[in-house]
Amino acid sequence: MVTYALEVVQQPVRARLSGFGVRRCPLDPPPILKLTLRDAESDVDASHLVVHADLWSADTTKVRNLVINPASVPHEPASSSISVISLKSPVYARNLVGSLVSPSYQLLNLDDEQGIYFVFPDLSVRTEGQFVLKFVLSDLLRVREDLSAGILAHCYSKPFTIYTSREFPGVDKSTPLTNHFAKQGVQIPTRR
C-alpha cells in the first residue's frame, strides 16, 4: 500500500498585508511542497493529485481563512448622542487569497533529481499577524467517490509574519529553488 508524505521544502517567511483592495502582496518566498511516496511498487500517476492551502493561527489551533470585511461594519458617529443598533450583519471575506490549490508538477530539484512538487506563487493574507499554512493533499479521483477518502496527507508550514506597510522589511531576491522551477516552466514570479 502506498503512503504519501508532504514536506514544505521552501517555507514562507513574510509578506506585507494585502488589505481589502485589489493589490495583493504574495508570501515571500512562495511556499513549495514535495511529495514523497513510500512503498510505491511502480511510478504513481500524480496528475490527479492536488494540494489545498488553508490559513491557521501560528499555534495551529484556529482556522483563520475568514475575516470580517471592515467596510461591512457600520461606522458610529463620534458626536451622536443617539444609540442605534445596526441590524446589518458583518460580511466575511477570505483572509487567505490567491490560488489556494496547486496541481502536481514533475520537476527537477537543485540536485537534478526528479520529484513531485506543489507550488503556491501567489498566496496573500489580508490581515497582519503570525500564521501558518495547512496543506492538504487530495486525490481528485477518490474525492468523487468519498470526500474523506480523497485526503491522503497534510502538513503545516513554519510560522510566518504578515506586516503592515509601515513595518514591512521588504522582499528578498528569489531563492535558487524558485528560479530553478521558473526555468522549468512553472508560472512563478522571480526577482533579482
From TrEMBL:
Q: Which domain of life is it from?
A: Eukaryota
Q: Which GO terms describe its cellular component?
A: nucleus
Species of origin = Basidiobolus meristosporus CBS 931.73
PROSITE patterns from the xrefs? VELVET (PS51821)
Residue span, Velvet domain: 1-191
Q: Which PANTHER family match?
A: SPORE DEVELOPMENT REGULATOR VOSA (PTHR33572), VELVET COMPLEX SUBUNIT B (PTHR33572:SF3)
What lineage is on file? Eukaryota, Fungi, Fungi incertae sedis, Zoopagomycota, Entomophthoromycotina
* Keywords, ordered alphabetically: Nucleus, Transcription, Transcription regulation
- Which InterPro entries does the protein's record reference? Velvet, Velvet_dom, Velvet_dom_sf
Q: Which residues cross the membrane?
A: none
Q: Where found, per UniProt? A: Nucleus
Q: What is this protein called?
A: Velvet domain-containing protein
